UniProtKB/TrEMBL annotation, chains A, B:
Keyword Transit peptide on entry: yes
Pfam families: FAD-oxidase_C, FAD_binding_4
GO molecular function: D-lactate dehydrogenase (cytochrome) activity; D-lactate dehydrogenase (NAD+) activity; FAD binding
Cofactor(s) it depends on: FAD
UniProt source species: Deinococcus phoenicis
Record carries keyword Ligase: no
Family indicated by similarity: Belongs to the FAD-binding oxidoreductase/transferase type 4 family.
Name of the molecule in the record: D-lactate dehydrogenase (cytochrome)
Annotated InterPro entries: FAD-bd_oxidored_4_C, FAD-bd_PCMH, FAD-bd_PCMH-like_sf, FAD-bd_PCMH_sub2, FAD-linked_Oxase-like_C, Oxid_FAD_bind_N, Vanillyl_alc_oxidase_C-sub2
Residue ranges occupied by any FAD-binding PCMH-type domain in the UniProt entry: 38-215
UniProt xrefs under PROSITE patterns: FAD_PCMH
UniProt keyword terms in alphabetical order: FAD, Flavoprotein, Oxidoreductase, Transit peptide
Amino acid sequence: MTEWGSGWQDALRERLGDRVSVASGDRNAHAHDEGTPYTCIPAAVVFAQSEADVLATLAVAREYGVPVTPWGAGTSLEGAALPMPGAVSLDLSGLDAVGEVDPVGLTVTVGTGVRRTALNRRLRPHGLFFPVDPGADASFGGMAATNASGTTTVRYGGMRENVAALRVALLDGRVLTLGSAARKSSSGYALKHLFLGSEGTLGVITSLTLRLHPLPPVTASVQLAFPEVAAAVLASVTVRGLGVLPERLEFVDAATIRAVNRHRDRHDPEAPTLWVEVAGRDGADVTAQLALLREAAELHGGQVVGEARAPEAQSALWAARHAVYDALRAAWPGHGTRIGDVCVPLPALADTAALALRLLDGHGLTAPLVGHIGDGNLHLLMHAPPDDAEAWARIDHVLHDLAAHAVAVGGTCTGEHGVGLRKRAYLRAEHGDALDVMRDVKALFDPLDLLNPGKVVGDPDTLPPWRNDVPARP
Amino acid sequence: MTEWGSGWQDALRERLGDRVSVASGDRNAHAHDEGTPYTCIPAAVVFAQSEADVLATLAVAREYGVPVTPWGAGTSLEGAALPMPGAVSLDLSGLDAVGEVDPVGLTVTVGTGVRRTALNRRLRPHGLFFPVDPGADASFGGMAATNASGTTTVRYGGMRENVAALRVALLDGRVLTLGSAARKSSSGYALKHLFLGSEGTLGVITSLTLRLHPLPPVTASVQLAFPEVAAAVLASVTVRGLGVLPERLEFVDAATIRAVNRHRDRHDPEAPTLWVEVAGRDGADVTAQLALLREAAELHGGQVVGEARAPEAQSALWAARHAVYDALRAAWPGHGTRIGDVCVPLPALADTAALALRLLDGHGLTAPLVGHIGDGNLHLLMHAPPDDAEAWARIDHVLHDLAAHAVAVGGTCTGEHGVGLRKRAYLRAEHGDALDVMRDVKALFDPLDLLNPGKVVGDPDTLPPWRNDVPARP
């Protein structure tokens, strides 16, 4: 346990009082994320309640050379929120203010610690929602810092398209307001975008103005089975050409459907499958869209597995999709999981999916392959016994080959999970000389390398010394 | 006229041969843009035919300390493409290659000099189009460099949302490829976005990969008159809540309708007016949207002036909107024009429009007020006799007060025209300390201040010495 008295701790305590903790319970609660096998215990935790607390923490960091790693909800999958040795974990969950909803401009300003589902509950009575849905109940600061996206990105875009403005505290004590509630601007450099996806390595986001969208008056869903992945991709392109832009367009591979059938006693066709949600003005609107979806599916050899319009019926239809994780856990009780994600240009998607399945097969592994197919975004849900180091090494091989392939075909090593610690190794291949420019940008904002050091543009050969090949949590 | 022999000219000629010109015709053709009253004759013009030519020009710039200002189509309205004294105008219109259209990924890669209308002609047989439409037949490099947007931005976004990737040549000779054909990424800092809107001050964009969209199967248009601007704004918000997101949503003030009526012998209600285009899958789809549009308009006191479904009928309906410029020119023959644009949060739009009309009145001026109302983006089409310095001074006052107001209400001094020379004065008020950070970023990419110096983040008090208060072109 860290002892008080070495200077920076006293300085933190002096400025932040009991909002600083070195209790092992608090430190351990900030030592793991939801996706990486590392245990990274921070030297202290600051429970910030305000932007002033963030600035006070950064002042101590600057004066004493103490690294700081922001913490939102801890739902990161790539290690973005894990503290370096000796670092302070800056817990931002206390910055939880939600401003007035602007029903004309369709914006709301929230503290960086506000979580997605809490905001959407509050927006529902206004007939509005915030569309970006990464699955986890992440904080908006974390979602912004990793440029998160998810199921609805095919229609609404990700965080870069839906953050109108943000405030960010810099290491030198300045607070910048970037962007505005105006819906567009050609005024100056896009610094706002620079912080979206920077994972706390350039500054600490303290609040965000979010773009809201009207809840669709009516929705409907359909489940479609295809003879092969390529047919599913082409059907999704065809339907766009017919004037239908779905709300969600989710893919699962055939073997996973088999596993879900077993787990749920279902009899769905064991084929590459799409779940599609469409939204419309009224019943006739979604009826017409469903007809075009069927037409597009049939054109590419697909068949309708199920269709649903009432909310409960839609939930039942999507239940098979949402059962993927449960089926995995039921089939492999006690296994640890690791989710790898890549994103490729749509013409490369079918081959990338095929490669993923071949890699699994070649390494004697099974894993659900799920994807946001309209974006070209694929996930492998890897699993193994926590202590089976050899299995985890094979998993590493598969995820490595998949990420390298995605970059080689002109895609990206991380579609929506961020870089954190584990995707740093692919940035040179993906960005070339631009990686050096990113490092120059990092040095501009953080010359002392105190803001979430090592992450994103850090040296990928320097794995954290506390690396633990045995996953710490199932 | 510039003489050969002072070093850099010889170096340019040696590396670029007859693609360098100091002929006065060529230099004069690069001395004006479409919106500013300056005459800025470059020291030479390089007619680049390739990325290699761009790099050769930048190498000479670096070695001899010669400033370089990129030139696309010269359609800038704020002086972004005007060369500094002694600068080389780098004409990129020769980088006009158009790559294969990707019908699955919905992308195409184009040279920076390709123009908007030429590309859309080529895309039409594919059933695709590139939606960003700033009005002028601009080059894609210029549109990217000013983060241009326009009539369709309410639905499709502007350049930041529609440039998938770009190549940019840096002053130090590196060429970065930023972004990819993958539809999303969380990999590293958003350098691509930094160049979108940087107006050639950080590097020279040489090619772009653009996101394409399916041409809507069916469209229809409606013209609506409202008792006041606020009602038009609220109707546009209401209709979105009903599930209708128009393709275009164009506003014109009452006095301008009066002028168009006179010019075209029309009898449209002389009231704040919206033209709305909706797109759908089929006739029934647009019929339903038109019904909701009428409903939303009537809810806010609006009335339908006209409605059109056949392409020719739609063109006739929009003719009144497109006649604004003609009516202006007919009413004030020989006048020079200057278009100022601002963008404000939607709740501030009606007051901003009212202020614009009051400012005109207070200064004894008339000017059409037109806007992309779904974005909160307003334009004043100012006009005066070219040699009436006193009138131009009043025009400056109006545009100044409007830009200052837009910033004061949380908007931006330039919604889509860029900063260039004339909007620099508002960047401190709009961005605060972020302007200093922008200048740091400028210094990082251009330590010698050779890339379009003076623009965007340049000192606004230093007006170009060649300023001519008498507009050089009508």
